[in-house]
Amino acid sequence: MIMENLNPHDQRPMLALAHGDPSIFPCFRTCRNAEAAVVDALSSGQFNSYGTAVGLPPARKAVAEYLSHDLPYDLSANDVVLTLGCTQAIDIALTSLASPGANVLLPRPGYPYYEVFSAHIGLETRHFDLVPKNGWEVDLDSIEALADANTVAMVIVNPGNPCGNVFTYNHLQKVAEVAKKLGILVISDEVYGHLTFGSNPFVPMGVFGNIVPVITVGSLSKRWIVPGWRLGWLVTNDTHGILQKYGVMESIKRIASISADPASFIQVKLDLSQLDGIIDDIDFCIKLAKEEKMIILPGVTMGSKNWLRVTFALEPTALEDGLERLKAFCQRHATTNK
């Protein structure tokens, strides 16, 4: 609906600050080593037949060895199931947990696929809140209030989509302790696991694997490092400088209490009292598309009405252009102009 409102007569390039896949931009291209490994595997002729439904044994063995580094015990290839992206992983994880009367706890705001698959298989969903003023940490009290004897699992997404936060080790420990107390499984969704090869120090198996059963959706190999990544986050030096220029970093740290750089997304709260003629987040995004040929995701799509999800995992020049357009749009609609 928002795309349909782009002005076809506007000659400027369309800017998509709503997308969730940075790999379309050259600055986030998958590293050459990873590409070469795929080419070599294809050229070898050893992998042309049907693979096993749970993934090729060498790949499962490599993942098991990687995850075992942070555990007091060793995983084997038989402990690992590889899927065709996170979508299939979510489907398999939820289907394996579904039983009559069962429910699963989901974060709000959160990734909508969990609701879609749960509805399809008859698994009840209950939502716990992520608290903006605490850096989008899990509201642990709401977990205990929502869970009952039929609760089979809770989902966390780290680094966060759409919030862009990264949980501290201490908070992950508290989440794991609550899950253990309630006797529920943790489904840990690593939001960048399905995007590209790179380093990912945020797989929290070291926390959860010691305390509660865990399903990890998405994992990466540290052997493949994408140049320019900072601790696996999609914030390059150029991008960081642009965010500083527009005061984004200061706003994040002040409003969301985040002490470090965010991941590739950020949630922005709309103050409708400061905007003239803007009804809600969808109206904001539609008018932004019409006037500035720019796409931002309305927060209502992820359970946060009157918020916006903005991604800055794109080319620095496009990011700066986008922030200029966004600034111009907000100034044009500011109530002080009326």
UniProtKB/TrEMBL annotation:
Example GO molecular function: pyridoxal phosphate binding
Pfam families per record: Aminotran_1_2
Record key words, sorted: Pyridoxal phosphate
Family to which this protein belongs: Belongs to the class-I pyridoxal-phosphate-dependent aminotransferase family.
Names of the cofactor(s): pyridoxal 5'-phosphate
Domain Aminotransferase class I/classII large: 14-247
PANTHER family assigned: TYROSINE AMINOTRANSFERASE
Gene3D superfamilies linked: Aspartate Aminotransferase, domain 1, Type I PLP-dependent aspartate aminotransferase-like (Major domain)
Origin superkingdom: Eukaryota
Source organism: Chenopodium quinoa
Protein name per UniProt: Aminotransferase class I/classII large domain-containing protein
Record InterPro entries: Aminotransferase_I/II_large (IPR004839), PyrdxlP-dep_Trfase (IPR015424), PyrdxlP-dep_Trfase_major (IPR015421), PyrdxlP-dep_Trfase_small (IPR015422), TyrNic_aminoTrfase (IPR005958)
UniProt-listed GO biological process terms: L-tyrosine catabolic process
